[in-house]
Specification:
Number of helices: 5
Helix content: 10-25%
Structural class: mainly beta
Radius of gyration: 51 Å
Largest sheet: 4 strands, antiparallel
Strand order of the largest sheet: 2-1-5-6
Shape: rod-shaped
Number of strands: 25
Order of helices and strands: EEEEHEEEEEEHEEEEHEEEEEEHEHEEEE
Distance between the termini: 162 Å
Oligomer: single chain
Strand content: over 45%
């Protein structure tokens, strides 16, 4: 005779075990599961057996109270198959039980009561292809400037071992890398925003990240520095030196590059280190790059000033620099003056008018003064070289030539000694050099020197004829016939 194999069905939810009449709670009818990936529900009937009416009420109240508690452990045993869901073990979460009395059923009596119960729950994304990453999606847009922007959203669950946020930290880098390469490979992206929505017990989280294609480097040592966020860099001329706006010389242009960036919260105690290690070298390189627009010569840094904001965790500052031409000239002034004396001597004589004068030949002179003042970036030698390059020799005949007359003109011994040797014209008579500086300005300090170069020229006219003294005495010179 074949024995009857008993059904080993039971449901344990929280502190209630539902199995047979002896336990006070017996399963009635089938235990019906509904499975969907990450979504599971169980439905079953329960008959409460009381020994007395009071005992029935007590057992029923306990069952109802337990099935009003969410997130309790659930174990279903169907013969030799067991389904176990536990929030602590991360095998199931968000357990949502429900209970409803079946009034008028066959087991609804003085000592028994029938209920319909169900428990729905969520399971982690444990497929090998998911490994805790349930889903993610991305979209990217391209603005009028052609710069791509990327947004990424997704859901990550516990994997049965790690909590959801720990899973996120372990997996997000690979996800981001795959998405960025799919959107546009071979470029650098900078993160703009990140948000995390974490379920109360860290079994599941949603996330959103946004990125923007990075066009300019964060540092000379690395294109992207994780600690530096949202860097802004702009440059504009602040001063164009007009004092030396002369042909052939490039005017210096003073420029100011403004920088600002937010710093990752992990770097809040080392703002100065970021500034020195990354920002200052970048600003200096940027200044050199911009200066090529104005000159082939490297720029001169006048000032680098940082601003640190530990409350806002940001750094900002500027570099002020000057782009020069080859001579690095700040300012130039050129003064030229020519003074001529005709050489006519006026002697008072008696005549009809008391203002009559006799005009006798005398010594005619012409002097030219040229003063060049040059302010340059550099030491004295640089200032003198600039002044020398801009100093000129007087050209042409001096004024007053028309005041000479057809008579004799006495020349000095020195002038006479130059006749025939100089060939006439302008000759340097006196030169003086004065310096102001070098004065050191800016940070880092650079020398600025001013040179004042003063030259005096004398004019002599090469004679066409030389005759000896015709007056019978030593005149101390020679006479020449004026042209």
């Amino acid at each position: 005779m074949v024995g009857i194999v008993p059904r080993l069905y039971s449901v344990v939810y929280g502190g209630i075990t539902i199995s047979d009449a002896a336990s006070g709670y017996a399963l009635e009818g089938p235990v019906l599961p509904r499975f969907r990936y990450r979504e599971t529900s169980w439905s079953f009937g329960v008959v409460v057996y009381g020994t007395t009416q009071e005992n029935l009420e007590t057992l029923s109240a306990a069952l109802i109270a337990e099935f009003q508690k969410p997130r309790q452990d659930l174990t279903i045993t169907l013969n030799n198959k067991t389904y176990s869901y536990s929030e602590a073990a991360k095998t199931g979460y968000e357990m949502a039980p429900s209970i409803e009395r079946d009034a008028g059923g066959p087991f609804d009596s003085m000592l028994t009561r029938e209920f319909s119960c169900s428990v729905s729950l969520t399971e982690p994304a444990i497929l090998a292809s998911d490994d805790g990453v349930f889903d993610y999606s991305y979209n990217h847009s391209i603005g009028p400037d052609g710069i791509r922007q990327l947004s990424l959203t997704g859901i990550i669950t516990t994997d049965g071992t790690l909590a959801a946020e720990a899973q996120y930290e372990a997996k997000i880098a690979a996800i981001v890398n795959a998405v960025q390469n799919a959107a546009e490979s071979g470029v650098t992206w900078t993160e703009e925003t990140e948000s995390r929505g974490i379920e109360r017990f860290d079994h599941e989280m949603t996330f959103t990240r946004s990125y923007r294609r990075q066009l300019y480097k964060d540092s000379l040592s690395a294109f992207n520095v994780e600690a530096i966020k949202f860097p802004q860099l702009a440059v504009a001329p602040t001063l164009i030196y007009e004092a030396n706006a002369i042909p052939g010389i490039t005017r210096p242009v003073e420029l100011k590059a403004q920088y600002s960036a937010t710093v990752d919260a992990g770097e809040s105690t080392d703002l100065t280190g970021l500034w020195e290690a990354h920002v200052v070298p970048l600003l200096e390189a940027f200044a050199a790059e911009v200066a090529t627009i104005y000159s082939t010569d490297p720029p001169i840094t006048q000032e680098i000033t940082p601003t640190f904001d530990p409350t806002g965790n940001s750094i900002s500052g500027f570099i002020r620099f000057v782009a020069f031409g080859p001579q690095r000239i700040f300012a130039i002034t050129i003064e030229e003056e020519v003074a001529a004396v005709s050489g006519a001597l006026k002697i008072p004589v008696y005549g009809v008018s008391p203002y009559e004068r006799a005009r006798l030949p005398g010594v005619a002179t012409a002097k030219a003064s040229i003063i060049v003042t040059a302010s340059v970036q550099g030491e004295k030698a640089a200032a003198l070289a600039a002044a020398n390059s801009l100093s000129t020799t007087p050209a042409g005949n001096p004024p007053g030539e028309e005041l000479t007359f057809d008579s004799y003109r006495l020349l000095s011994r020195e002038e006479a000694g130059q006749l025939g040797a100089s060939g006439g014209g302008w000759s340097l008579e006196d030169e003086r050099i004065a310096f102001v500086g070098p004065n050191y300005v800016g940070d880092p300090a650079t020398p600025v020197t001013t040179c004042v170069l003063s030259r005096i020229y004398d004019y002599d006219k090469d004679p066409s004829e030389t005759i000896p003294d015709g007056g019978g005495g030593d005149t101390g010179g020679i006479f020449t016939r004026a042209r």
